[in-house]
Amino acid sequence: MKMHEKIAPPDAVDFLGLDALLSHEERLVRETVRDFVRQRVLPHVADWFEQGILPREIATELGKLGLLGMHLDGYECPGASGVAYGLACLELEAGDSGVRSFASVQGSLAMFAIYRWGSEAQKHEWLPQMARGQKIGCFGLTEPDFGSNPAGMRAFARRDGNDWVLNGTKMWITNGSIADVAIVWANTDDGIRGFVVPAVTPGFSATNIHKKLSLRASITSELVLQDVRLPDDAQLPLAKGLAGPLACLNEARFGIIWGAIGAARTCYETALEYAKTRMQFDRPIGGFQLTQEKLANMLIELGKGSLLALHLGRMKDEGRLHPSHVSFGKLNNVREALKIAREARTILGGNGVTLEYPVIRHMNNLESVLTYEGTSEVHTLILGQQITGLAAFT
Ligand SMILES: Cc1cc2nc3c(=O)[nH]c(=O)nc-3n(C[C@H](O)[C@H](O)[C@H](O)COP(=O)(O)OP(=O)(O)OC[C@H]3O[C@@H](n4cnc5c(N)ncnc54)[C@H](O)[C@@H]3O)c2cc1C
Q1: Which atom of ligand 1 is nearest to the CA of 381?
Q2: Distance from the CA of 147 to the center of ligand 1, in angstroms?
Q3: Which residues contact 254 (CB under 8 A, 6 or more apart)?
Q4: CA-closest residue to ligand 1 atom 35
């Protein structure tokens, strides 16, 4: 660059010019998902949220775009990079956290569990159909009395001849009542194990949790397993102990690092546009210093969170991402996204509390995102343990 050449002013959203750090293929993935969200999600999502539904056909549409299990390789999964998967999560969650949650649970929890811990037969049976969105999966780890501390789970699978007989209750299970297959984690005489449970198995039932005020465009259910008899080969043969579900959670949490930035971006963009056009005291509210301080702080956290997501994505693709890095990213990006959403809501004034604008929907959704896949407190404790060597969980 010659001295006299003028430096282009930064964009109001991609202020740090992070686009330049993405490859052509990565930008293509991002644009494809952004278009899908623009056409298929944004026109309807406020109604879905209000009605508490997510249309079933979204699953096959996401499947056609290769977004279900997109970072898995083989079995009809595209084998995309971590960064490409992250960008897809970001764009889906810019639409709604419920849509991103669907893709996360399907690809990173249910499919990943089979991919990482399953037998060849289990992979061939389930992964291609799940990648196409023809079969839906859920992931049952949390129980009514054991959320942050899944090690205490009461679900139990006992041996009966060559069979397993599974009993227990799982709570807050995304996609539970629409799932064709549930990955259920249960204690055995040999410690925690994972089971592939087809939803048609006698004794398996799922009922929806109602009255949620967050993540409404997402199905959340309670699973009851009452003397569910499963053949020996229903067990995920390679998963032993809590490391089994935790490896899956690590994949989904990685997607959340990016997804939260998508929700935050939508809130920031909405607030910025509103601030430039809403007149009070004969001038746009964006001309008041107090509003500009809010917007500037939102912009800074959005940029820092985006950089962090991209950095952690590159580390994942280089095989250098430790689970505590994922805690770092999830804790920061969800916490800051929620702050951005709350700040954006104030800029919208009264309009900030209606579904006519996306902000309060994202704000309410992010309350769930802060809690699931490890609460912010749990991720704080993981970081604390990593840097001090001292566990403070109990
Ligand atoms: C919409 C939604 C969808 C979900 N989807 C799924 C799913 O698909 N599959 C699944 O298995 N689960 C799912 N969950 C469950 C989620 O992972 C749990 O809610 C989460 O792990 C917290 O567990 P809990 O709700 O039992 O809260 P608790 O564990 O009871 O925690 C309550 C509070 O105590 C704090 N706390 C707990 N222990 C400590 C400690 N040692 N130190 C300090 N503070 C502590 C927590 O951080 C939290 O603030 C979902 C939850 C929601 C809301």
Answers
A1: 42
A2: 4
A3: 82, 85, 86, 108, 312, 313, 316, 321, 326, 329
A4: 377
Distance linking the first and last C-alpha atoms of the chain: 57
Residue 177 CB–ligand 1 contact under 6 Å: no
Q: Kindly report, residue by residue over 5-56, the tens digit of the pLDDT.
A: 889 999 999 999 999 999 999 999 999 999 999 999 999 999 999 999 999 9
* Phi and psi angles of residue 74, each rounded to the nearest 5 degrees, phi first: 90, 175
pLDDT in tens, 73-117: 999 999 999 999 999 999 999 999 999 999 999 999 999 999 999
Of the residues 371, 382, 394, which should be mutated to test ligand 1's pocket, given the most ligand atoms within 8 Å of the CB? 371
Output helix, strand, coil percentages for the chain, rounded to the nearest 5: 55, 15, 30
Cα 173 to Cα 274: distance, rounded to the nearest angstrom: 36
Residue 108, ligand 1, Cβ within 6 A: no
Alpha helices in the chain (DSSP H): 24-36, 45-51, 57-64, 82-95, 97-103, 112-117, 120-131, 243-277, 289-317, 323-347, 359-371, 376-388
Euclidean distance between CA atoms 360 and 45, whole angstroms: 13
Our answer on whether the CB atom of 372 is closer than 6 Å to any ligand 1 atom is yes
Residue of 57, 336, 373, 377 marked catalytic:
373
- Is residue 371 within 6 Å of ligand 1 at its C-beta? yes
Dihedral angle, C-alpha 236, 237, 243, 249, nearest 10 °? -30
pTM more than 0.90: yes
CA separation for the pair 210, 169 (Å, rounded): 17
Query: Among 5-9, 63-67, 108-112, 131-135, whose mean pLDDT is lowest?
Result: 5-9
CA dist 373 → 188, 329, 342 (Å): 24, 12, 21
- Ligand 1 contact, 105 CB (< 6 A): yes
User: Which pLDDT score is estimated for 4?
Assistant: 67
Reported as a single tens digit per residue, the pLDDT across 259-275 is 999 999 999 999 999 99
Written as one letter, the residue type at 351 is N
